[in-house]
């Protein structure tokens, strides 16, 4: 305990705690108004085919333009939103906004691609999730396979029965399914054969130190081979260097997503990228 570890550390501890507590307070007190004030935005990060650099899709990533704290990433508020019971409403907004934006790009004649969205555990337990997805797709004239739902292993493990049920429904509707942050969290490989995911996303932590770290390289290679044998596309997340790119290409990774190609960006900027249609390292 901080109190027993001496006067100074106690002071620092309370100072830190106060700063964090103040931030949480600023976040909690404003979060309930954020939706009606239209303060959320989606940024988009391209997913690119390693074979030819084609932009085959993008991941939508939420940001909050907080009235006093500025633009906040999801790590700063998603947990609070889950604890305070706002996440389902926010998540439903993400679904609608992603569909609206994707349809707009299609209408503008930009190349067709799919859009991936992240769902929280609570959304998979939401009774009307299928209805929300169906309504968002149909009201924007999108076919179901344009939307790609990302689920993490930890979300599956949190409530296996209801998550797998929701996944069956989503797959049955024709949406794409991706397993996010693969290889992290407590998980079991058995769910990989329980349902057919379209994509497996290798977590950034395994990508970071390839090709120099031989263990990480072996793990990345094993995940790529496993995904291929199970007829899934494999996506490497967090690709930042050309050496990682070369390694992943040589090992047969299908798609990459990372700062090497592009950071998540506002929709206007993404439209420019999509108009070009391809993205290769060094461009
Ligand atoms: P994620 O789904 O695994 O998303 C990938 C994260 O990695 C994003 O962080 C992205 O900006 C970051 N990233 C991509 N490429 C690189 C790279 O080359 N280097 C580094 N260092 N990072 C990279 P972001 O946007 O901060 O999102 C963090 C997490 O928040 C996401 O992880 C996802 O779990 C969650 N999240 C984002 N948007 C939503 C949302 O709309 N709803 C829910 N429930 N969760 C969301
Ligand atoms: Mg994701
Ligand atoms: Mg991820
Ligand atoms: Mg993550």
From TrEMBL:
Give one GO biological process term.
regulation of DNA-templated transcription
Report keywords, A-Z: Membrane, Transmembrane, Transmembrane helix
Gene Ontology annotations for the cellular component aspect, listed alphabetically: membrane
In what residue span(s) does the EAL domain sit?
A: 24-278
**Per its UniProt entry, which superkingdom is the organism in?**
Bacteria
GO MF terms here are: cyclic-guanylate-specific phosphodiesterase activity
User: What is this protein identified as?
Assistant: Diguanylate cyclase
Q: What is the lineage of its organism?
A: Bacteria, Pseudomonadati, Pseudomonadota, Betaproteobacteria, Neisseriales
Which stretch of the full sequence is covered here? 633 to 915 of 915
């Amino acid at each position: 305990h901080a109190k027993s570890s001496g006067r100074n550390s106690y002071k620092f501890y309370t100072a830190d705690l106060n700063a964090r507590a103040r931030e949480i307070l600023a976040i909690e007190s404003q979060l309930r108004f954020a939706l009606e004030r239209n303060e959320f935005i989606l940024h988009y990060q391209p997913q690119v085919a390693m074979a030819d650099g084609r932009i085959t899709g993008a991941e939508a990533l939420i940001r909050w333009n907080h009235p006093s704290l500025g633009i906040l990433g999801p790590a700063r508020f998603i947990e609070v939103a889950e604890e305070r019971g706002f996440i389902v409403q926010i998540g439903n907004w993400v679904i609608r906004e992603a569909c609206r934006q994707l349809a707009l790009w299609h209408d503008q004649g930009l190349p067709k691609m799919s859009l991936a969205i992240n769902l929280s555990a609570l959304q998979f337990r939401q009774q009307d999730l299928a209805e929300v997805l169906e309504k968002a797709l149909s009201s924007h004239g999108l076919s179901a396979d344009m939307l790609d739902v990302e689920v993490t292993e930890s979300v599956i493990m949190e409530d296996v029965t209801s998550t797998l049920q929701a996944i069956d429904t989503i797959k049955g509707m024709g949406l794409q399914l991706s397993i996010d942050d693969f290889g992290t969290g407590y998980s079991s490989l058995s769910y990989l054969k329980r349902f057919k995911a379209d994509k497996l996303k290798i977590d950034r932590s395994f990508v970071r130190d390839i090709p120099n770290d031989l263990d990480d390289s072996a793990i990345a290679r094993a995940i790529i081979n496993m995904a291929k044998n199970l007829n899934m596309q494999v996506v490497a997340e967090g690709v930042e260097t050309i050496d990682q790119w070369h390694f992943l290409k040589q090992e047969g990774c299908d798609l990459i997503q990372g700062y090497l190609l592009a950071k998540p960006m506002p929709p206007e900027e993404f439209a420019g990228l999509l108009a070009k249609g391809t993205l290769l390292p060094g461009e």
